[in-house]
Specification:
Chains A, B: Its EC number is 4.1.1.33. The structure is a homodimer. By secondary structure, chain A is α+β, with helices and mostly antiparallel strands. The first copy, chain A, has two domains: 2-182 and 375-389, Ribosomal Protein S5, domain 2; 185-367, Alpha-Beta Plaits (2-Layer Sandwich). Chain A contains eight helices and 19 strands. Chain A has helices at 72-88, 115-130, 139-143, 201-211, 215-235, 239-258, 269-285, 309-319; strands at 2-9, 11-15, 20-22, 27-28, 32-36, 43-51, 58-61, 64-66, 98-105, 157-160, 173-177, 185-192, 291-294, 300-305, 331-333, 360-367, 373-375, 382-383, 388-389. In chain A, the strands form five sheets. A six-stranded mixed beta sheet of chain A has the order 8-7-9-6-1-17. In chain A, helix 1 runs parallel beside helix 2 (115-130). The longest helix of chain A is centred in the middle third of the chain and has 21 residues, at 215-235. Chain A starts with a strand and ends with a strand. The interface between A and B is medium-sized, with 27 and 27 residues.
Chain lengths: 392, 392
C-alpha cells in the first residue's frame, strides 16, 4: 500500500474571482489575488492511499463517505494527475490501482470559509505525491476541482492568472510574494450568526455572467487596474493601499452579485455593521489600519498588522458586545497576549457605533502562511492495515 | 393679499436617478423615469401668499417654521419663478412683496418616501400660480429645488431627460403617458421597521460619482437601453417587461451604492427578504405579476395590477406575519374589497418563505395618479386675515 498525507491552507481573496468563461474547465473572466492563511489555525488534511486490494475509489470527507467516482470534478483531478504520472513513465504502482482517500477540515463548516479550495488543493497535492508528480505544475489541475483551489497551492500572496487559451493550460496560479515577505500580516475572521439560505457560488457566478450588465466592465477594466495596484502595494508593504483596494474589491464583488437577476445577496445587516465599524475605526485612528473582505457569505475577514490586533479586538468588543467573550472559545487561533477587555491605549471607542449583543458566533485569529505541506506517516488519517479511516 | 393653494404628488422612479454632473444646477448623469402616485393617498400641499405687509419670506413646513431665505434651493426656485413673471410683464403685485408659505405632507416622514420631490414640485407649482406663470415650463425650476421634483409636475409616467447643455435648460421632465393610459397600475408601499442612519441621497450620489468605477458604465450604457425598453413596455402595457426592468434597475442602483467608497447601504435584511418574496411569488404564479423598487432607504415600493392586489396582500400576510394586521391602520390608502386574511384563490403560499413577525410598520395601498392640482380658497393652509398658518 502506498500512502501520502498532506495539509493545505485556506486562502482569502483580496481581488475576487467571480464569473467563469468556461464552466467545465473552470476558467475565470478575470485574474484574482489572495492571501494564504496559516495552516496552524485552519487547514484541510488529506491521506490518499493506493493498494491492489482496493475495489473502487472511495472518499471519506469529515468522517462520512462521499461519492468520488460520481464526482466529475474530483475524478478530473485524479485523471490529470495520472496523466502526468504516465507521461513521466515513473509509476510506483500500476495506474489501475484504486484509491482510498480520507479528508478532513480542521475548521467548522459554519465558518463559511471556502473549504472546497483547501480541500481540492490538498487532494491534488496528496495525489501528486502519491503518483510522484509533485514537482509538476499542479495549479491548473486543482483549478478544475474548485477554481480558487489553485491559489491554495502556494503560501503568501498568490495570483491566479485567468489565462487566454481555451484549454486552460495558462490559467494557473503563481506566487506574488511568499509569506516571509509580510510576516506580520494578521487576519481576524468574524463568524456571524446567520440563518438565510444563500445561492451557491457556482450558481451565483453563473447567473452573474448571464444577467449582470456590470460584470463585464468589472472584469475588463476594474480588475486589471486593481490587480496591478495591489501587487505594487504588496511589494512596497503599503498596508493602507492594500486595505483600500481590498475593501473596494469586496464591495464591488457584492455589487455585481446584487446586479445579478434575480439578485444574489451574501452580506447581511451584521456584515454591513462590520463594514461601518471598520470605516469608523480607521477614521478614529486617523489611518487605514484595518480592511474587510467578504466572500459569498456574511462572515467578515479582517486584515490588519500584528501590532494592531489588540486594539482592534478591544474596539470590536466595544462595538459588538458578546456574552461569549469571556469564554476562551470566543477568540480562537493565535492567542492574544493582552486582555481584550482593555482599551490598550485606544481611546476612540466613543466614536464607534455600538451594535446589538451577540451578533458573532466567534472570532478566529490567524495570519498569512505557507502553502501545502507533506506530513509523515504518523499523521495518516488512514489505517494502513485495513485501508480504512482511522478514528482519530 | 394674493393666495394660492396647490397639491402635488409623490413619484417613484422605475429607472433611478443617481449621480449629478452639476451639483448646483442639479443636472443628472442619466435620464430617469417614474410613476406619479395618486394624490388621494399621498401628497404635499402648499399655500403661498404675497402681501405688502409681510416683512420677510417665511415658510412653515409640517407645522414648524423653517429657514427659507437661508435655503439656497428654495430661494433659487422663487427667483426663477419671479424672473418668468418679470419676463411676461404681467405682475399682479410688486415683485418686492414678501411671501408666507405653508406646506404640509399628508404622509408620514417615516414612510421614507421622497417628500422633498413632492414638496418642491408643490412649492414651484403654487408659486407659479401666485405669479401667474403656471403655463410656462416649470420642471427645470422644480429640478433646482430637488432633482426628482421635476418628475412630480406631471401625472402618469414621467421621464426626466438629463439634457446636454451646461445651463440645464434642456434638463426637463416630460410626460411619457398620462395616468389614464394605465389606470389599473397599483402600488403597495411596505414601510419597514428600521433604525440605521443612512447616508443622505445628496451625499450618497456625490460619493458614488467620485468613487464608483461602475457608475459611468451604468449611466452611459445601461440606463439608455433600459429607458428605451421601459418606454416601449409602457406603450404596450407589457407589465412583465416593465416589472423586470424596474427590478433590475432598482438592484443596479443599490449595486452602485455598494460600489461607492465607503459603501452606501440603503436596503436592509427586511428589504432583501421582500426581494426574495417577490421573486418567489412570481415563480409560484408562473408569471411576473409583481415588481419591487427601493429608493435610498429600506422601504419597498411594489408595482402590480389592480386585479392582483388581493392575492398579493394575502401572500404578503402569509410571508410577513404581523400582529398589527387586524388593525384598520395596517393597510392604509385605497380600501381592499376582500379580506386579506383569505388566500383569494392563490394556493402557492406553501412555496413562499415565512419571515419573522412584525417586520413592517404598515402598508400603503395606492395607484398611479395625476399631476399637481390647484385648490380653492377653502383649502388654504393660511389665515388670510393675519397671514399665519391655520391650525387645521
Amino acid at each position: 500500500m502506498f500512502i501520502e498525507t498532506c495539509i493545505a491552507p485556506v486562502n482569502i481573496a483580496l481581488i475576487k474571482y467571480w464569473g467563469k468563461r468556461d464552466e467545465e474547465l473552470i476558467l475565470p473572466i478575470n485574474d484574482s489575488l489572495s492571501v494564504t492563511l496559516s495552516t496552524d489555525e485552519m487547514c484541510a488534511k488529506t491521506t490518499a492511499a493506493a493498494a491492489s486490494s482496493f475495489k473502487r475509489h472511495i472518499m471519506w470527507l469529515n468522517g462520512e463517505e462521499v461519492p468520488f467516482e460520481q464526482n466529475p470534478r474530483a475524478m478530473r483531478c485524479l485523471k490529470e494527475i495520472q496523466q502526468l504520472a504516465l507521461a513521466k513513465e515513473q509509476l510506483k504502482f500500476p495506474i489501475e490501482w484504486k484509491l482510498h482517500i480520507v479528508s478532513r477540515n480542521n475548521f467548522p463548516t459554519a465558518a463559511g470559509l471556502a473549504s472546497s479550495a483547501a480541500g481540492y488543493a490538498c487532494l491534488v497535492y496528496a495525489l501528486a505525491h502519491l503518483y510522484g508528480v509533485q514537482k509538476e505544475e499542479l495549479t491548473a489541475i486543482a483549478r478544475q476541482g474548485s477554481g480558487s483551489a489553485c491559489r491554495s497551492l502556494y503560501g503568501g500572496f498568490v495570483r491566479w492568472h485567468m489565462g487566454k487559451s481555451n484549454d486552460g493550460t495558462d490559467s494557473i496560479a503563481l506566487p506574488v510574494a511568499p509569506c516571509e515577505h509580510w510576516q506580520d500580516l494578521h487576519v481576524l475572521i468574524l463568524v456571524v450568526n446567520d440563518a438565510r439560505k444563500k445561492t451557491s457560488s457556482t450558481k451565483g457566478m453563473q447567473l452573474a455572467v448571464e444577467t449582470s450588465d456590470l460584470i463585464k466592465y468589472r472584469a475588463q477594466y476594474c480588475v486589471p487596474q486593481r490587480t496591478a495596484a495591489i501587487v505594487d502595494a504588496i511589494k512596497k508593504h503599503d498596508f493602507a493601499k492594500l486595505a483600500e483596494i481590498t475593501m473596494r474589491d469586496s464591495n464591488q464583488f457584492h455589487a455585481i452579485a446584487l446586479d445579478t437577476y434575480p439578485p444574489c445577496v451574501y452580506m447581511n445587516d451584521v456584515s454591513h455593521a462590520i463594514v461601518e465599524f471598520v470605516h469608523a475605526f480607521n477614521k478614529a485612528v486617523g489611518e487605514v489600519k484595518l480592511a474587510y473582505t467578504f466572500d459569498a457569505g456574511p462572515n467578515a475577514c479582517l486584515y490588519l498588522l500584528e501590532r494592531d490586533v489588540s486594539i482592534v479586538l478591544a474596539a470590536i468588543k466595544n462595538s459588538f458586545p458578546n456574552d461569549a467573550e469571556q469564554s476562551v472559545e470566543y477568540v480562537k487561533g493565535i492567542p492574544i497576549a493582552c486582555d481584550i477587555g482593555e482599551n490598550n491605549g485606544f481611546n476612540g471607542n466613543a466614536t464607534l457605533p455600538i451594535n446589538n449583543k451577540n451578533l458573532f458566533k466567534y472570532i478566529i485569529h490567524t495570519r498569512i502562511g505557507k502553502g501545502p505541506q507533506r506530513l509523515g506517516k504518523s499523521e495518516s488519517l488512514l489505517d494502513s492495515s485495513n485501508g480504512l479511516p482511522l478514528n482519530n
